[in-house]
Amino acid sequence: MYKAAADGFAGTPNMMIEIGGTYDLEVVKQTDFGVFLDAGDLGEILLPKKHTPEGLSPGDIVEVFLYSDSEDRPIATTQVPKAEVGEFAYLEVKENTPVGAFLDWGLDKDVLVPFAEQHRPMVLGKSYIVFLYLDNQDRITATSKIDKYVSNDPDHGFYAQQAVELIIANSTEMGYKAIIDQSHWGLLYNDDVDERISFGQTIQGYVKHVRADGKIDLSLKSGQQIRDNYSQVIEDYLRDHGGFAPVHDKSPSEKISGLFGMSKKQFKKAIGGLYKQKIIAIEDDGIRLV
């Protein structure tokens, strides 16, 4: 994707440009083997001809990802990687070599996971959750030792009902550990999962609750979706039982749970919504469809 200079597109002025990120850069020189881009402090970087959009010329702006070639020189591509430096991704092993495993991350050149950065020996054809970082020679490298890169900082700023992106990273007796928005751990309880999910899957979820210690409970449904589901359960029960259920907001929790499989708090919120919509009436001995 690129924009001609004549349309006033400004690129990325005053932005620090680093290997491992995506930027809008200006074409400064055209050659037989590609174009050179102005990458600020990194100097002029080659965008090879095979990745150069047709019609690109000096003064145009093009969106590129920056990485290092086989000789550790900065190079640009219009290919889109599955992850950038500072991000997690679920990637497949394409080759095992004497220096480590190479994973497919969407570019012509695969990314290396050195043996020292493998949580366990990687198997050809299998996929692993990895984190991308720059090594001490500014080469993009991956590691499957991800724990040290996922934050447990309680001052994270996440809040209840917030929509987030989840990477399913592990399973426990209680449920699934997930990486939230490429940064923090969260827990998705088994009781909140009513669909098949798998290791490495990226899925949209919601912050269900932030505990006092900052730990994050997750859900695959928003609060409104959950309330709608509970309301539907109650309405379906009433239609299947002559329009009446012998419970109301003052009934014992055990009776409500036994009848509908939800807590008293969830039940009260659900029937409150149904009452406001004039779908049910709340009577002395129970609730009834209107």
TrEMBL record:
What positions does the domain S1 motif occupy? Answer: 18-79, 84-145, 159-221
Q: Which SMART domains match?
A: S1 (SM00316)
Gene Ontology MF annotations: nucleic acid binding
What superkingdom heads the lineage? Bacteria
- InterPro entries the record matches: CvfB_fam, CvfB_S1_st, CvfB_WH, NA-bd_OB-fold, S1_domain, WH-like_DNA-bd_sf
Annotated family:
Belongs to the CvfB family.
Q: What is this protein called?
A: S1 motif domain-containing protein
- Species assigned in the record: Rhodopirellula baltica (strain DSM 10527 / NCIMB 13988 / SH1)
